Structures are given as C-alpha cells and as structure tokens.
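Format notes (please read before filing issues)

Several people have asked whether sequences and structure tokens are stored in separate files. They are not. Every record keeps both together, in the order shown below: the sequence lines, then the token lines. Line labels are part of the format and must not be stripped during preprocessing.
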Amino acid sequence: MAVGKPLKSEIELKHRPLTPFRILRGLVCLMVLLSTAFMFLVIFAPLAAVLLRACSIHYSRKAASLLFGLWLALWPFLFEKINKTKLFFYGEHVPSGERVLLIANHRTEVDWMYLWDLALRKGRLGYIKYILKNSLMKLPIFGWGFHIFEFIPLERKWENDEPIMHQMLLTLTNRQDPLWLALFPEGTDFTEQKCRSSQNFAAENGLPMLNNVLLPKTKGFYACLDTLRSSLDAVYDVTIAYKNSCPDLMDNVYGVDPSEVHIDIRRIPLKQIPVAEEEASAWLIDAFQRKDKLLTYFNTKGHFPNQRSEAELSTVKCLINCTLVIALTGIFTYVAFVSMWMRVYIALSCVYLASATYFNFRPLPLLDFVKSRLCRDKRKK
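Then the structure lines:
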C-alpha cells in the first residue's frame, strides 16, 4: 500500500542555523514566557476564577480572557516580530465577533500556537479554548492555565471522555460569552507511521485513503456540534502548512523554524452542516479529504490557492503589550520579595491552582450554589 510522502518542507534543513546567539535569545524568551505565565496565574487567577466567579461566570470569563489575551499576545510577537516568521492567509475572510468551532489539521505539536496569530487579528485571542489530551494538564504552570481557562481534557477513550466533554461543553453554551473552540479531529500529530495505520484502517472500512492527514475521529466533533449548535455561528475549517519544516516548540523558541506558516480558512455556517450524527461524520471526513488535496497542492506549489491579505500585527502595539506584561510581572515579583503577605498569597494561590487542576474543580456562583442546594433539599423531601 502506497503511503504519502512527507511534505517537501519536512525533509529540508532548518531555515536558520542554531547559533549561540539564538540559543541565548531563545532561553531569555523562554524565561520571560514562563515567569510571566507563573506570575499572572498566581496573582490574577484567584481573583478572576474564584472571587469574581462567585458573583458571575460571565464576568469571571471576561476578566480571565483579558488577562489571558495579554499574555498570549507575547507568542505572536515572538513568532512574527522577533523570529521574523512570515504568515500567509488563504481562503475566506472571516468576520470578527463570531462564536465558532474551529477544526484544524495536526502537522506538529505547535499547530495550536499559530491559531493565536489568527485569533489576535480577529480580537478573539483571550477567548480561544482547546480540546486537548489530558496529559497536558499535568504540565507545570501551563496545566494550571489550561484548567483556569476551561480547556477540555480528553483521555482518548470515548467511554471516559463523553461525560466529561458533554459536561464541559454545556458550560460553554451562553451566547454572551465569546468563544473560539479549537478541535484537532485527528487526535494526534501526523507522522508516516500514523499515516500507515490510518490508511490500513481506511482500507479495512471502505474509507478514503489520505496521504497528508489522518482520518478524523468524528465523535468529539459531533459532540461539539450537538451541544453547541444553537449557540455557534459557524465552523472554521483551517488547514496549516509550513516552510521550511514542521517546527517543534524549541524551534519556535530559538527562531530556527519555520520560515513561513501558510493558513487556509474556510467558513461554514452551522446550517450547512448536517444535524444527524452519521451525516455530520461524513461531512467531517469530506472536509479532511479537502485538506489532503490542499496539502498535496502545497507540496507541489509551495503555497495554497486563493491567497488573501490580512492585517499585519502592529509592532508598536506588540511592544506596548510586552512591556506591560513584563512590567506587571516585575512589580509583583518585587512585592513578593519585600512582603511576607504577598509570599503567603502566592503560596496559597499555588496550592489552590494545583488542587483545582488535579480535582478538576471550578467554584459555582453563590446564587447558583444556593439554588442547587435548595433544589436538592426539595428532591429529598
């Protein structure tokens, strides 16, 4: 059985050499990203995700998204302004302000980061949430953030994932809460070995043979549609490809790759996607056949068809945002050195974040809590 060759961009050398300067610069950038993430979480998470949430989930999410967006904007700044990675956009212009389910192919471990560049341009950076594998919740610092910002963790066993996914999706149905929910239906990043397994499965089950993507898993996609259909505006079908090669996290940190990121976007109104599960699953497989063809085209031409313009990030705004984040981190770090009470607050915050993430706990607003207790007491009587 013929297996699709890896994209040409995957077998080339790194775009930029890994010099001592790039290593030093990358380590400084990584230190800034980690320290600012830690300080923003331990200082602001208890205020936004506990105290404010006790009054209103909506305003709690607003505050958390504002802070999340400030920190996340450091990454597009790193990619586009420091690393000089060029982003090219294709397909349809998508409007700002929509609630959407976003489906994307999964070439590498950092695909999800380049969605931030698109979200920043559409004013949705702080509102993007991911459906991700449960093991990522165990990452130090970042796992806390994934919990606070209500990412949905999966074990990749549907019998275990279904109730958790359904429960968390139900909390995202309020149209007043902006939402970009990102799903990678392949369930894992693309490799030749995984492609062979996917093709074997396709041959045994009469499904399409795909060379540049894996067959998508349809149950999670349908669960998202079924639960959120009445509160979503559209599905964004996103296809990502890279030059010079598919990067990993440290390639991004050191700025050695990729030289270019190409992003094709197709907007599908919800009414055009079938309601029945079997038909919606077939629609998703068709969407991945389209992705496969697009990636074949990219492999041949070095770009997608129908390139369009998208606003460049403002260097001034990026610098102001970066300065603000670093300044706030510096202030809180200084206060922690001179104030015992700040150190106690940070210690308690760490305990809360670690335990809340481990037990997957989020406080209910007090009014909702009282109502639930009253309902429970009535049922007992």
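For reference, the curators noted about this record: The longest helix spans residues 20-51. The two ends are 66 Å apart (CA to CA).
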